[in-house]
Design brief:
2 helices, glutathione-dependent formaldehyde- activating enzyme (gfa), alpha+beta, about 25% strand, binds zinc ion, globular, eight-stranded mixed β-sheet, single chain
Length: about 190
């Protein structure tokens, strides 16, 4: 019996199957009429779950599902007038639909930030399938701030592992190394 609704894309087992050569697709918000449409001209990279309290989640889910794509590969193709930045004081500017609340993409405007070249998207809003399943969960302990009882965390971590989604309390080691390499290059410890 599930103690925590993790995310609808994984709660009943992971039924996301990568297709070789997936080249991106169209993201839609939840509006029945005039949905915001965002076209992504890239595979969805680093697909993962995020337990932080800032990322958009489907109703009742403890985690969001999030991937990175090169920011110049993201174009708002319909109803962009409905987008607004959720919180301009946050490092990541999350562009959400004013009517249904779905976050369509997020970008970091700070030019020297390690994630500046990327836009973050929610793959489950993709009309097109073929992207890879999430391979890790970031900021798992933050799910407590989102309302998961601390006593359910052992179950949650075990369930994520069972699903093939490695739980981490920050980013995955691969992403942490990218972040640290960026910092080391900025300091000159590592050749740029
Ligand atoms: Zn909408
Ligand atoms: Zn998050």
């Amino acid at each position: 019996m599930a103690k925590v609704a993790i995310h609808p894309a994984v709660d009943n087992g992971v039924h996301i199957h990568a297709h070789a050569g997936f080249k991106g697709g169209t993201l839609l918000c939840k509006c029945k009429t005039d949905p915001v449409e965002v076209t992504v001209d890239s595979d969805y990279l680093f697909n993962h779950l995020c337990g932080c309290t800032q990322c958009w989640k489907p109703e009742g889910a403890a985690f969001s599902m999030l991937a990175a794509v090169p920011r110049e590969k993201v174009k708002v193709t319909k109803n962009g007038q409905k987008l607004k930045i959720v919180d301009e004081t946050k490092l990541l500017h999350r562009y959400a639909c004013k009517d249904c609340g779905v976050h369509m993409y997020g970008v970091i405007e700070k030019a020297d930030h390690v994630f500046h070249p990327f836009a973050f998207i929610h793959p489950e809003r993709s009309r097109d399938e073929g992207y890879a399943a999430p391979t890790f969960a970031a900021f798992v302990s933050s799910a407590i701030e989102g309302g998961v009882p601390p006593t359910d965390m052992a179950w949650l971590r075990a369930r994520l592992k069972e699903l093939g989604i490695e739980p981490y309390d920050c980013y995955s080691p691969e992403l942490m190394d990218i972040v640290a390499s960026h910092a080391a290059k900025a300091k000159g410890t590592l050749a740029a």
